[in-house]
């Protein structure tokens, strides 16, 4: 197997990966960015609403970073590490200014300063945006910027696994998708910036490529995930494509209706009605559907028709267009078909506020792949783009100082380990019979959706755990019909499924362990938050097919837990 | 009543999807798949279903399923489109047939099935130095890079290119002229050329102006772009910067002559006889081929506008300084 030698290797070409690569390259180190898609195809491009930031001289005069920290901590139902949230708030202004200087075309106020809008859970408006395509605008700016530096891009290269040497990461094995050739990438530091995992769920707003590869690679290398049970669901995803219909639609007066035309939120949140928080609205919709009051296909209607055509087209242009383009529905005349869908993963590779993992020397993580943790049990809208950039940068800088003192090569036979990784991966292709990835994939996505989803309880989670364990065992008998040596995407889909299964067992086990309801983790058998027993992070390892769960304290600085009411 | 319409229209309908496949070993061949779709089914979902339920060997690209990542470019019933932005039943309706054909994009070499090699496309994009080079003071933070809201609006239109490659795959000028940068690169280049905060204007002009005169104004890029970027508009706008270029090359000079022809046409009729100017410049063969594209696209009305002399010709001539 050919070797490629770098100082640092970044897995992932989304916002987090690119920002860390920028820092490492700017400091004069050799860095490779490996991405299974061309970087601008990364999921970061889908983000719509905006990026939160406190910018001195260009924020609400009453706002200040402390409010931003507080909002973040409360939004995360107090599972947030408060030092991390403080750092996020303090560095937010810098990041937005940097992106602006690099050319991001933020919407403007009449005097030329960057414009602001309100987002859920903010005491003062502090979200900056580029129309409704903020993620795309930021991602293109950053990619174009980094492509002008001496960074080596390996686009459409699939990372299989990390290569380790006792307690240290020494590189990764990745395969060029076009030629199907595996290569050993050697580097003193590896950053996992592989994004989220929406494809584990039957319904998700995420891209098809979000298969949680980084979480699984970390687990297999012996690193822990933090808070893996926390999965965020968004109440209004377009049926059936699960494209996000922004909260703005309900903010402007949209009404959720069941198949009888009833405004069912009156039953669940008589005061807030359709503007109830994301988790409550999601649960209510699910109840309607489960009790047979959804539409065939299992969705409810988002009714804008009473708002009038001109109002809809002016104020809710995006919702109108999405319904038209992707569902063929004219929102001025019909309900928009919606249902909840997985949206974001709060859990991730366990790292500190410099992006460093404590289990393996040289291993770092950033972005949605990491759990720093700034989102706690529930992420606030527009904080995630911010996290990718702030912590992408912090991590890049931490890697730079790590590289300055890291030692050189190791003793064990790295080449052998790399070959084992490739052989393991190829074991699917070699077998001639067995189950096929499509079958297992669909089953897993349904189990996760039904039993490890918006509603959880002991019975469901126990069933789920044994189901996913069974499916995970079947993965070992998986086979790939395509034997081609060019873009064998069936092979990569199979590898993605292997990754999803490793993560699925960890999520199911952690969700079963946490016997309380906090943020997005809702247990019908334990409906209350329980600070006495559960104000702590879950730390999960996957060791020899067994999930091992431990705990870590939450870092509290200024804010003592209080009830999360809005 | 709205309730009713959703319910009634949810019925499934069977479509026959014909995919033009390619592999090094087997060469090119067509394969057919039958599946059920409803009024909501996107073509990316059709592909995903085929791959997970019928034929896992089929190769294609897709990521965001919401028309922002630019992965799923292909030809659907001969039209260059994003698969995710195309509903199966809309195609059935438009062509009045339940057969849907999928082919890889034109122009780019096919690697496998619907996956094409985009190296040439990326090469074009990088040639125009696609990044802001702000003056030192901005980078050091000693000056504030404010942007007028109207500039933001204008630039954002052209910055929305998602690098999908559809325009380049269907551009006739790219196919015959190796010196032409192509529509997407021009959009990208212009987005920075026109940014008041950029500091390498001269260099950008040198990269862009000559090439801008090589476009045939066929509007194919305008027709196919899924994000309404209007690359051809940026080419027009770039041409107008020719006067600022110090050493003009052959093409730019001919181009300016071409503008003169247009000027004369307007003087003559009060209008731009686009078709006539185009024909004399590029010959009948190219013109016919482009017209076929346009017809298939259903935009023929746009290209067939008859040029008649306008009534206020005197006033136009006056405006032109006669
Ligand atoms: C519809 C939607 C709207 C959103 N809107 C907002 C918003 O308005 N504001 C906000 O703050 N957040 C928003 N978010 C969340 C936010 O977009 C994401 O959390 C964020 O973009 C993640 O960025 P990332 O860099 O961590 O990962 P990604 O952008 O997902 O990048 C992951 C990278 O890893 C690579 N990769 C993965 N696996 C492998 C492998 N095995 N080998 C090689 N490469 C691999 C991929 O190719 C990709 O380049 C939204 C999310 C969704 C779903
Ligand atoms: S208008 Fe110009 S750039 Fe656009 S497709 Fe035609 S020749 Fe190409
Ligand atoms: S200009 Fe339009 S068609 Fe061309 S690559 Fe960009 S988005 Fe695609
Ligand atoms: S899948 Fe992203 S543009 Fe179609």
From TrEMBL, chain A:
Residues 7-385 form the FAD-dependent oxidoreductase 2 FAD-binding domain. Keywords: Electron transport, FAD, Flavoprotein, Membrane, Oxidoreductase, Transport. One of its GO terms (molecular function) is electron transfer activity. SUPFAM superfamilies: FAD/NAD(P)-binding domain, Succinate dehydrogenase/fumarate reductase flavoprotein C-terminal domain, Succinate dehydrogenase/fumarate reductase flavoprotein, catalytic domain. It is found in: Membrane. GO terms for cellular component: plasma membrane. Its cofactor is FAD. It is a peripheral membrane protein. GO terms for biological process: anaerobic respiration; electron transport chain. Signal peptide: none annotated. Residues 442-566 form the Fumarate reductase/succinate dehydrogenase flavoprotein-like C-terminal domain. Its EC number is 1.3.5.1. InterPro entries: FAD-dep_OxRdtase_2_FAD-bd, FAD/NAD-bd_sf, FRD_SDH_FAD_BS, Fum_R/Succ_DH_flav-like_C_sf, Fum_Rdtase/Succ_DH_flav-like_C, SdhA/FrdA/AprA, Succ_DH/fumarate_Rdtase_cat_sf, Succ_Dhase_FrdA_Gneg. The active site is at residue 278. PROSITE patterns: FRD_SDH_FAD_BINDING. NCBIfam families: PRK06452.1, sdhA_frdA_Gneg. Belongs to the FAD-dependent oxidoreductase 2 family. FRD/SDH subfamily. This is succinate dehydrogenase. It comes from Metallosphaera tengchongensis.
From TrEMBL, chain B:
The lineage of its organism: Archaea, Thermoproteota, Thermoprotei, Sulfolobales, Sulfolobaceae. PANTHER family: SUCCINATE DEHYDROGENASE [UBIQUINONE] IRON-SULFUR SUBUNIT, MITOCHONDRIAL, SUCCINATE DEHYDROGENASE IRON-SULFUR PROTEIN. Its EC number is 1.3.5.1. One of its GO terms (molecular function) is succinate dehydrogenase (quinone) activity. It comes from Metallosphaera tengchongensis. It is an enzyme of class 1 (oxidoreductase). GO terms for biological process: respiratory electron transport chain; tricarboxylic acid cycle. Keywords: 2Fe-2S, 3Fe-4S, 4Fe-4S, Iron, Iron-sulfur, Metal-binding, Oxidoreductase, Tricarboxylic acid cycle. This is succinate dehydrogenase. InterPro entries: 2Fe-2S_ferredoxin-like_sf (IPR036010), 2Fe2S_fd_BS (IPR006058), 4Fe4S_Fe-S-bd (IPR017896), 4Fe4S_Fe_S_CS (IPR017900), Beta-grasp_dom_sf (IPR012675), Helical_ferredxn (IPR009051), SDH/FRD_Iron-Sulfur (IPR050573), Succ_DH/fum_Rdtase_Fe-S (IPR004489). Pfam families: Fer2_3, Fer4_8. Belongs to the succinate dehydrogenase/fumarate reductase iron-sulfur protein family. Its cofactor is [4Fe-4S] cluster; [2Fe-2S] cluster; [3Fe-4S] cluster. NCBIfam families: dhsB, PRK12576.1. The keyword Iron applies. Residues 152-179, 205-235 form the 4Fe-4S ferredoxin-type domain.
């Amino acid at each position: 197997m050919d070797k490629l030698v770098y100082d640092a290797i970044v897995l992932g070409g989304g916002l987090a990966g690119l920002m860390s690569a920028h820092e490492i390259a700017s400091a004069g180190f050799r860095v490779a960015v490996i991405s299974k898609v061309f970087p601008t195809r990364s999921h970061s491009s889908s983000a719509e609403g905006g990026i939160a930031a406190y910018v001195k001289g260009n924020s609400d005069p009453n706002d200040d970073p402390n409010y931003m920290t507080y909002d973040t901590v409360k939004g995360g139902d107090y599972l947030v590490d408060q030092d991390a949230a403080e750092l996020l708030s303090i560095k937010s202004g810098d990041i937005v200014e940097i992106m602006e200087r690099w050319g991001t075309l933020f919407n403007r106020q009449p005097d030329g300063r960057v414009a602001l809008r309100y987002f859920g859970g903010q005491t003062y408006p502090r979200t900056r945006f580029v129309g409704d395509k903020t993620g795309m605008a930021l991602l293109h700016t950053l990619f174009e910027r980094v492509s002008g530096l001496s960074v080596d891009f390996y686009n459409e290269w699939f990372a299989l696994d990390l290569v380790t040497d006792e307690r240290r990461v020494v590189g990764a094995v990745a395969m060029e998708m076009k030629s199907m050739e595996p290569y050993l990438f050697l580097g003193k530091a590896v950053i996992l910036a592989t994004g989220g995992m929406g494809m584990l769920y039957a319904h998700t707003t995420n891209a098809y490529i979000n298969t949680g590869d980084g979480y699984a690679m970390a687990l297999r290398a012996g690193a822990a995930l933090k808070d893996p049970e926390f999965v965020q669901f968004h109440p209004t995803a377009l049926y059936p494509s699960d494209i996000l219909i922004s909260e703005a639609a309900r903010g402007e007066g949209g009404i959720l209706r069941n198949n009888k035309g009833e405004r069912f939120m009156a039953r669940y949140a008589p005061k807030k009605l359709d503007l109830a928080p994301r988790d409550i609205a999601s649960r209510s919709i699910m109840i309607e559907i489960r009790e047979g009051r959804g539409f065939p296909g299992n969705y409810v209607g988002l009714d804008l028709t009473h708002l009038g055509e001109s109002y809809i087209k002016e104020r809710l242009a995006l919702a109108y267009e999405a319904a038209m383009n992707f569902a063929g529905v004219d929102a001025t005349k019909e309900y928009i078909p919606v249902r909840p869908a997985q949206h974001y993963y709060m859990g991730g590779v366990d790292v500190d506020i410099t992006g460093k993992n404590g289990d393996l020397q040289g291993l770092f993580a950033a972005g949605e792949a990491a759990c720093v943790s700034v989102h706690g049990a529930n992420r606030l809208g527009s904080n995630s783009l911010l996290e990718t950039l702030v912590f992408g940068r912090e991590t890049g800088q931490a890697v730079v100082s790590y590289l300055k003192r890291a030692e050189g090569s190791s003793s064990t036979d790295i080449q052998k380990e790399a070959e084992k990784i490739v052989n393991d991966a190829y074991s699917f292709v070699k077998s001639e019979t067995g189950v096929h990835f499509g079958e297992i994939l669909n089953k897993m996505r349904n189990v996760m959706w039904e039993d490890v989803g918006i509603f959880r309880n002991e019975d469901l989670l126990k069933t789920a755990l044994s189901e996913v364990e069974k499916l995970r065992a079947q993965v070992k008998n998986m086979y790939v019909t395509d034997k081609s040596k060019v873009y064998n995407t069936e092979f990569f889909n199979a590898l993605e499924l292997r990754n999803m299964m490793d993560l699925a067992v960890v999520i199911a086990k952690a969700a079963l362990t946490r016997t309380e309801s906090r943020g997005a983790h809702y247990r019908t058998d334990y409906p209350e938050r329980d600070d006495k027993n559960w104000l702590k992070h879950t730390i999960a390892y996957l060791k020899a097919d067994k999930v091992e769960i431990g705990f870590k304290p939450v870092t509290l600085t200024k804010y003592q837990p209080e009830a999360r009411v809005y | 009543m709205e309730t009713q319409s959703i319910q009634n229209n949810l019925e499934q309908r069977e479509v026959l999807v014909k995919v033009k496949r390619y592999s090094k070993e087997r060469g090119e061949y067509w394969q057919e798949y039958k599946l059920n779709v409803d009024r909501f089914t996107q073509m990316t979902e059709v592909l995903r279903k085929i791959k997970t339920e019928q034929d896992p060997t089929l190769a294609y690209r897709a990521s965001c399923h919401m028309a922002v990542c630019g992965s799923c470019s292909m030809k659907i019933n001969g039209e260059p489109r994003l698969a995710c932005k195309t509903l199966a039943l809309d195609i059935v309706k438009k062509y009045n047939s339940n057969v849907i054909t999928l082919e890889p994009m034109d122009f780019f070499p096919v690697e496998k099935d619907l996956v094409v090699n985009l190296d040439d496309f990326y090469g074009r994009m990088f040639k125009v130095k696609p990044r802001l080079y702000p003056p030192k003071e901005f980078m050091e933070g000693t000056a504030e890079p404010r942007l007028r809201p109207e500039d933001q609006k204008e630039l954002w239109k052209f910055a929305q290119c998602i690098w999908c490659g559809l325009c380049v795959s269907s551009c006739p000028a790219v196919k015959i002229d190796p010196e032409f940068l192509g529509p997407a690169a021009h959009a990208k280049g212009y987005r920075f050329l026109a940014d008041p905060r950029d500091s390498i204007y001269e260099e950008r002009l040198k990269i862009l102006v000559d090439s801008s005169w090589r476009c045939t104004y066929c509007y194919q890029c305008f027709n196919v772009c899924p994000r309404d970027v209007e690359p051809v508009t940026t080419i027009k706008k770039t041409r107008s910067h020719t006067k600022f270029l110090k050493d003009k090359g052959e093409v730019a000079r001919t181009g300016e002559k071409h503008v003169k022809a247009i000027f004369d046409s307007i003087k003559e009729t009060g209008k731009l006889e686009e078709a006539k100017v185009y024909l004399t410049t590029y010959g009948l063969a190219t013109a016919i081929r482009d017209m076929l594209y346009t017809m298939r696209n259903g935009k023929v009305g746009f290209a067939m506008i008859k040029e008649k002399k306008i009534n206020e010709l005197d006033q136009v001539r006056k405006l032109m300084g006669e």
